[in-house]
Design goal:
The structure is a homotrimer. Chain A has six helices and five strands; from the N terminus they run βαβαααβαβαβ. Chains A, B, C: InterPro entries: DsrE2-like, DsrEFH-like.
Chain lengths: ~160, ~160, ~160
């Protein structure tokens, strides 16, 4: 199609992350170019759960690590989470349909030549180190995001 | 204007649904073409409250039916809902202004030649049957949504 | 760049307001034209905390004034707010990085020739008076927003 989609993934919730990644995967299947810019809570989606470190971090940064979800499958729902019960139910319903889980959509996206960017300011404020993110994630500033988004045919804030 | 707007209605909250439907109605009034793609919680907006059925549904699908809002007017607020008190207050404020309620904006939209689409995967996961949705809702996949959105002049994720 | 960005600021949460204003400021730095349309909870961001009045307001409008955040710095987080504890922690982390607070991004935006619009219907329903908003905010209807957004190169619903 020679078209381009740019997603700003702000939310760190399971259902919204699912929506973003389903769109990203579907776009690649119809040969649309895809960029995802992860900011704020959206960074939880591209943290590598096996590379979390508490070294050289302030007390707040350590708390942020300890209190937040480790990896995509731990993200809560944006609604009806009911301390995890609603999310568990949704996961069962996804399985009943033989539909993929969030982690599979993320794995799919990582293989489909999608540009993964992380917001520089968000990474700094949250105290994440570049090596704690998935290796293909490139850290860029808001102006660089804007230039990409302004040239895209479809932009969403999720 | 010969322009086109595409809304992805992900949220199933009263205030966000209101925002989406006000935009859709206003766009039609200035002759902008409108498509709304309802996904996830957004599907609550196009379920026909009189056609809910528990037949042929799994236990989770039944729970989903029982625990979720029946019809647009039952949707909660995204903020300050206070177990419904905040929403009741907002409804009173809307009435004080003589402004239409959500159900009226939905009725208006249904008469204005707006395309209503529902996300196929969301419908399957939530266990809704096509006949439980408003009759004008067409079920499509993410790729079909993308093709429409990529050709639009304004796209929002609500 | 001769490009134009249009933000619909629906949310009245600290983190999302931050995202919107960082994008707005960054866009101006690369000479992109910026319009922000504040609707619903987003109006909390452009209320002048020193001009709140309870005069000539219904009981609901007075409650709305009393129960809602006074000024940008009082806005809650969209996630992990923990009755303000999470937000306090985030503010400390922002300060540790020497990064600006929300109020500074708002002040920056006000000096950068950004168009500030407020949604007429939202202002009426919430019972705000025009003089309670920041002086540069112009009140417009949804159709006027749409015309601006349809001519923009990047539009986000935040």
């Amino acid at each position: 199609m020679n078209k381009k989609m740019n997603l700003l993934m702000f939310s760190g919730e399971y259902d919204k992350a699912m929506a973003g990644l389903i769109l990203a995967n579907s776009a690649r299947e119809i040969e649309v170019e895809v960029t995802i810019f992860f900011a704020f809570w959206g960074l939880f989606l591209v943290r590598d759960p096996e590379k979390t470190t508490l070294e050289d971090k302030s007390i707040y940064e350590k708390l942020m690590d300890v209190m937040t979800p480790k990896g995509p499958e731990q993200l809560p729902l944006s609604r009806m989470n009911f301390s995890g019960l609603g999310k568990w139910m949704l996961e069962e319903m996804i399985e009943d349909q033989g539909a993929p889980k969030l982690i599979h959509f993320l794995k799919g996206a990582r293989k489909k030549n999608i540009k993964f960017y992380a917001c520089k300011l968000s990474v700094e404020i949250m105290g994440f180190k570049p090596e704690e993110l998935l290796p293909e994630v490139e850290i860029i500033d808001a102006a660089t995001y804007l230039k990409d988004a302004l040239e895209s045919d479809l932009q969403l804030f999720i």
